[in-house]
Amino acid sequence: MTKYVKISDVSKILNLIDPKTKKPQNHTLRYWEKNFNEIAPKKINNQRYYSLEQVEKLKIIKYLLKREGMTISGVKNILKSNANKLDVNNNMSLKTKYFKEKLKFKSKNLLIKINKIRKNGKKNSSKSSNGS
User: Fold this and answer.
1) Class of the CATH domain delimited by 1-81
2) d(CA 17, CA 14)
3) Which of 105, 112, 120, 131 has its Cα between 20 and 30 A from that of 77?
4) Structural contact between residues 98 and 60, judged by C-beta atoms closer than 8 angstroms
5) 29-39 pLDDT, tens per residue?
6) Where are the domains of the chain?
7) Which residues face 48 on adjacent strands?
8) What single string gives the DSSP state of each residue in the chain?
């Protein structure tokens, strides 16, 4: 069974949040949806729902647009040419670069959490052992 995610949750996952209002920038996803045929959310009661596969594609689209500075037509060409599949084994490929950045980000967050636990100890450890 395929899991679907609401548009506002996808905006949060992609960190597409307005810095002033702190609201999700769903309009960005709707714009990308118009430009990339690969992104076609399911609509239920006029609400957009994205599959996890589409969320991963959106992460790559965001990375190529924002981090690599590519244009929409450039990203379209990469997605159309299946470059993602062709360059998996190339260490200098865009896909490899994307996954390296993703791993680096996750590693930093994990290290921060480990350091917090070391510094403060595990939260609520006394409550869970008492059973109260």
Assistant:
1) mainly alpha
2) 8
3) 105
4) yes
5) 999 999 999 89
6) 1-81, 90-121
7) 43
8) ---EEEHHHHHHHTT-B-TTT--B-HHHHHHHHHH-TT---EEETTEEEEEHHHHHHHHHHHIIIIIS---HHHHHHHHHTTHHHHTTT-TTSHHHHHHHHHHHHHHHHHHHHHHHHHHH--TTHHHHHHT-
